[in-house]
UniProtKB/TrEMBL annotation:
SUPFAM superfamilies reported for this sequence: Alkaline phosphatase-like
Signal sequence extent: 1-29
InterPro entries reported for this sequence: Alkaline_phosphatase, Alkaline_phosphatase_core_sf
Keyword tags: Hydrolase, Phosphoprotein, Signal
Taxonomic path: Bacteria, Pseudomonadati, Pseudomonadota, Gammaproteobacteria, Lysobacterales
Residue numbers spanned by region Disordered: 444-464
EC code: 3.1.3.1
Keyword S-adenosyl-L-methionine: no
Name by which UniProt lists this protein: Alkaline phosphatase
Coiled coil: none
Family that this chain belongs to: Belongs to the alkaline phosphatase family.
Catalytic class of the enzyme: hydrolase
Length: 566
């Protein structure tokens, strides 16, 4: 080696070594140590312990160094890592590439981590308990909305267990707040940003048992309006669920054969309009565009959940995409100079996975990628923290040895399996039959006969109540497995496919995002947000929940954050 070359190589080596040695220090330079008591698991896991434990992890990762003015949390409901990988490939293939090299919008973010999703009472969680962990900093039981762990059906038990959500905290701190979802706005994920209920299914007054009403619980739809006690309430609320807000005597504006669900005589849409006389209520895409300058915005685009992205173009009323909802929300909230927080849920990823229909699950994941891209384009990484994550996983499998570029929704074609010694052809199982790259461990795609469809491949939608044992596997040679209505085979028969219990991803960019790393408990996400946002942190400290280092470590009491009566 020439002397000059040697010196150059040595200098490069020293510089790289210096970078390698200083990089971890720079990412943890703002780390703050918080003591957490050792407890017996799970018996010692109190709400206060969960809160302090999450605060300690976020502070130890350096979240206190964040200077975010705005926060946007994207929640892909049921968006397992397998769902992300398959959607990434499908999007790439739709654009004419082989697909594997593609990245969804958030996969370009600089910070990544894993989230442990279990509930306090279940290894494999549900959306209510998981989203409550994300919004309150406290893990809780399956089915819980904004309350700490207790008995799911016991209203009285829950009344003293309400938790302050970061949406309510932001409202109390003078930030603008917003909620966007493709589910009903009263469904588990959006509800966990503003409501308090031990049972996620108490969405309207007809769902609420008489005993719960007598004990003092109110339905979730009502709570969307009453959460304004913390400030102004959500200035943007866009999603589905018109039926939860209107009465049985009111005809739906889009479907003449449908009416509302409420029996208490309360039209909550009208009540919202009375509380926001300059605001706009909309139920279709054209109205949403026309309401661009409204100071407050309520959009209910379906009586139930919004359409899957696959079916949205056929919606009779004209339904906006998740990206369009996101743009509208950011345009409204960004008018507020003090900053904002926004939650955006790609809800129907979960529903399609439950239905055993990968095409719609992946399609809605791609739609959420478009929404994240829209948010990136509408904001700056200098002042806006964007976090993308999921609440839980699903049982979607990505299997076999398909050749590079093989259609992700297609049948596996390989060159002789792992050995790769043959020519490209359909892969065969032990019975000599072809199989698809994607399948489910359980669900309605089971190929035995059901009370709704005959034996063989199943077609979406399929929600059976009984099955007969399958006799072998169907021959898929001439079946179009890439059709949007094809349902992937499931090993175990079930009316609905179940959630999975493995970790999900967290991706982040913007102020405070460097703290997003490693494997963390899901409730830590709340603490990452509040610690990285000075106004949220200051509001918590103002009411005495912070330690001497300024870290919010004490469980906040919701009533303290409500507006004072004039």
């Amino acid at each position: 080696m020439h002397k000059a070359t040697f010196l150059s190589a040595a200098l490069t080596s020293l510089l790289l070594g210096a970078c390698a040695s200083t990089a971890p220090q720079s990412s943890t330079a703002a780390a703050v140590s918080v003591d957490v008591p050792t407890v017996a698991h799970p018996a010692g896991e109190t709400p206060q312990w969960w809160y302090r434990d999450g605060a300690a992890r976020a502070a130890g990762n350096g979240a206190m160094a964040g200077k975010a003015k705005n926060v946007i949390l994207f929640l892909g409901d049921g968006m397992s890592l397998t769902t992300v990988a398959a959607a990434r490939i499908l999007e790439g293939q739709r654009h004419g590439s082989s697909g594997e090299e593609n990245l969804l919008s958030w996969e370009r973010f600089p910070a990544t981590a894993f989230s442990k999703t279990y509930n306090t009472d279940s290894q494999t969680p549900d959306s209510a308990g998981t989203m409550t962990a994300i919004t309150t900093g406290v893990k809780t039981h399956m089915g819980a909305i904004g309350v700490s762990a207790g008995t799911r059906s016991d209203c009285s038990d829950s009344l003293s267990k309400g938790l302050l959500t970061w949406l309510q905290l932001a409202d109390s701190a003078g930030l603008a707040t917003g909620i966007v979802s493709t589910a009903r706005l009263t469904h588990a994920t959006p509800a966990a940003t503003y409501a308090h209920s031990p049972e996620r299914n108490w969405e309207n007054d007809t769902d609420l048992p008489e005993a719960a009403k007598a004990a003092g619980c109110v339905d979730i739809a009502q709570q969307l309006l009453s959460t304004s006690r913390y400030g102004k309430g959500p200035l943007v609320a866009l999603g589905g669920g018109r039926g939860q807000f209107t009465t049985v005597n009111e005809e739906d504006p889009e479907y003449a054969d449908k009416v509302g669900l409420r029996l208490d005589g309360r039209n909550l849409v009208a009540e919202w309009q009375a509380a926001h006389p300059q605001g706009a209520y909309v139920w279709n895409a054209d109205q949403l565009k026309a309401a661009a300058n409204a100071p407050a915005l309520l959009g209910l685009f379906e009586p139930d959940h919004m359409q899957y992205e696959q079916d949205r173009p056929k919606d009779r009323g004209g339904e906006p995409s998740l990206a369009e909802l996101t743009r509208a929300a950011i345009a409204n909230l960004s008018k507020h100079q003090d900053g904002y927080v926004l939650m955006v849920e790609g809800a129907r990823i979960d529903h399609a996975n439950h239905s055993g229909n990968a095409a719609r699950a992946l399609g809605d994941t791609i739609a959420m990628s478009d929404a994240v891209k829209a948010a990136v384009e509408a904001t700056s990484a200098d002042d806006t923290l964007i976090i993308v994550t999921a609440d839980h996983s699903h049982t979607l499998n990505f299997v076999g040895y398909p050749a590079r570029g093989n259609p992700i929704l297609g049948k596996v074609k390989d060159k002789g399996g792992e050995d790769g010694a043959g020519k490209l052809d359909l892969a065969r199982d032990g019975l000599g039959l072809p199989y698809t790259t994607l399948s489910y461990a359980n669900g309605p795609g089971y190929t035995g006969a059901s009370n709704q469809q005959p034996a063989g491949p199943k077609k979406f939608p399929h929600g059976p109540s009984s099955f007969e044992p399958a006799v072998g596997r169907p021959d898929l040679t001439h079946v179009d497995t890439e059709h949007p209505d094809y349902m992937q085979e499931a090993l175990v028969p079930a009316k609905a496919e179940s959630h999975g219990g493995e970790d999900v991803g967290i991706w982040a960019r913007g102020p405070g995002s460097k703290a997003v790393r490693g494997t963390m408990e899901q409730n830590t996400i709340y603490h990452l947000i509040v610690q990285a946002t000075p106004r949220l942190r200051a509001r918590l400290c103002e009411l005495g929940t912070c330690d001497a280092q300024g870290v919010p470590v004490e469980l906040p009491q919701p009533r303290q954050f409500e507006r004072k009566a004039p």
